[in-house]
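Co-fold these.
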Amino acid sequence: MSDAQQPALRLQGIVKTFPGVRALDGVDFEVMPGEVHALLGENGAGKSTLMKVLAGMYQPDDGKIIIAGRPVRMTTPIEAKAEGVVLIHQELSLVPEMSAAENIYLGELPRRSFGRVDWKTLEERSNTILKRLKCSFRSEVTVANLSIANQQMVEIARALTVDARVVVFDEPTASLTDAEKVVLFDIINDLKAQGVGIVYISHRMDEIFTLSDRITVLRDGAYRGTLTTAHTNEDEVTRLMIGRSLDLSRDEAAPTFGKTMLEVRNMGCPGLYKDISFSVREGEVVGFYGLVGAGRTEIAETLFGLRKPASGEIRVDGEPVEIASPRDAIALGISLVPENRKEQGLVLQMNCRDNMTLPQVQDLTAGPFVSQGAELAIFDQYRDRLAIKTPSWKQPVGVLSGGNQQKIVIGKWLSMQPRVLIVDEPTRGIDVGSKSEIHQLLRELAGQGYAVIVISSEMPEVLRVSDRIVAMYHGRIMREFGIHEVTEDSLVQAISGIRVDEPA
Amino acid sequence: MRHLFQNPVLRWLMRNPIWGFVLIVFIFFSLSSDHFFDARNFQNILVQTSTIGLIALGMTLVMINGNIDLSVGATLALAAAFAVDVQSWAMFATWGNWQILPAVCLALLVGIAMGAINGFIVWKTGVDAFIVTLGAMLGIRGLVFVYTGEQSFYAMNFAYSDFSAFSVGPLPVLALIFLLCVLAVHWLLSRTVHGRNTYAVGGNREAAVNAGIRVGPHMMINFMIIGFLAALSGVLLSTQMGAATPNLGRDYELWVITAVVLGGTKLTGGKGDIIGTLGGVLAIGILRNGMNLMQVPAFYVYVILGSILIAVLFLDKRFNTSTDGGLRL
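Predicted complex below.
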């Protein structure tokens, strides 16, 4: 490659301010052709803003963008794409009602005369791209009918519509299964071999260390340094990112379990899961591990009364119960912290206090009015107990960090005095620092006698918080492990559907 | 039961339940009224439908965009007033029948301008289209009264009021114009880049922005199209009546939205098509016509249409919810 010495992309002293916030403060960043450059930083460190500047969605107030040696100004995503900078968005940026092909070429559909769409070219080109991505679906399918992982592939396919100089992946693996990750990494290596510069944003250290050549860290909108991946380790990167080392150790004090709180026997629901039997004791954390779509969330929704099981029995405290609605579940002391806190767990525009007291506000009355005092008392109690960082209860939850939002949701359900707490993907999209706080918190809650069920797709997470791990595959429980007998290999086998005869 | 769903006709009807309903009311009125099944009556239905139908075409675009336009009835009245009044301006007195041309052109331009204003405000302020066009509905209706001085205008040129009596072959000219517009808008929506972008903007506005579609100007164009169609509808209506009254087009926005929603267009945007909208306006047209022939008092039509609207949407929800896997609400 002749221009190997020249960066494919260089950002110099980028400054971007919003009213009241200096989101980017003189950030330098460069990607060489054929390099994977990881960009790291806690939520709110300015990664997204930087990427939006790159994609032409924001204009920097100061600083230069240099592509292949030429300073450029980009005012729209289309212009950025024309310069060869392609951004793959973290939150799926697709139109559900349209076909995969139309989504791949969204905003730049091939045209014929009179602005007509050139359907033939569109389908040929997008099928070629999908084939390159080893996708099993055709480009004519409607995106709404695809699984989340396949939708992510459509999103990635967009990067391949032009001869890209730089491709930015923003948390691309958030919803991919392990098998699909392998395909994605192949594609990234493929692009790399073609001399494309890759910017890779992720919270997952293991991915960053397998993929990247260099790592740049941002903190509070400022440049913190660039490390060569081969000469560094997770600890150094973490310290650069959050300014301190992480305590990753498990609390090894042997937990004490009480009586069985929740028991499920032979529960089944056609098409979603079958033959589900497990139990949770007081003070115990049971981790549900499996791939996306293994039926874990559906089981949680059944226990919370959102779905009706076709067969089987649920016992709470030894008594068989019928859970027909979330109301019943709450009355029985079962709480669910849902998978997607922004869509299912919080009313983002409402303030912290109101979000927390939402499920019980009808009980917090003084005469015909809502009692401000009672609400505040609950909020203060759980803010202190969960160490929620917010300037005041009046803050809309939408502006809090992911970790604090999650704590508000957990606090909301704790205030309902549950006995069983089900947490679905508790740390999705939360940065490393807050992640370990949430893990700590879940352990503490178990220590206080709650029965906790944690659903997670991240192996380090289940291994860290659980006392027992239930491995699921395709709607079935494959195996149950005690935390001391589990190995990463056996866990991966179990969730991939490989049956191992258990030792007698 | 299963093989029934393999039948392409039935499958098509499942996706467009409104056409099943059109078929049912068509058969019902054919059997129960002597005057319904008659070529002249069909021409009638098409002409009656064309007024609301034209606006519904534009409303389909605007609603797929995720917007709504409540000001169409008022725009219609304003355009009709212009069309009738300008003909009799002194400056065109010597133009003979040509005086109709500037009048109609000006009326259509007024419609486009009203749409452009709506679209521009939605684009630049980001205020919800419901509020913007609610304001426009009141404001434009006010303009109509100011302009007409609360009087009706009568067309002095008989060529103008005779226009609606023309036929091309078996088709009355008004029906022909309507059908041509149906084809044009259908083509625009399903075949052009602008049409596909209409779905993209309504389906996921953020994705459209990310993909570099200029959402604001795009929405403004659709508002201009509905403004044009509302004005065209107003002109055609005034040829039928030979006059323009200041109260012309009252409640039309409600009929239009009903027809479009009956046709399967989602209020939240991203979904809908012209075939459905055509079914929606025909359903309303046939019902009104048939019940009129059976001498059912007009207000019953409202009761029945209201019930049907809810029933059709209920059936649609029943048949076309597979994605949420039956999550209880």
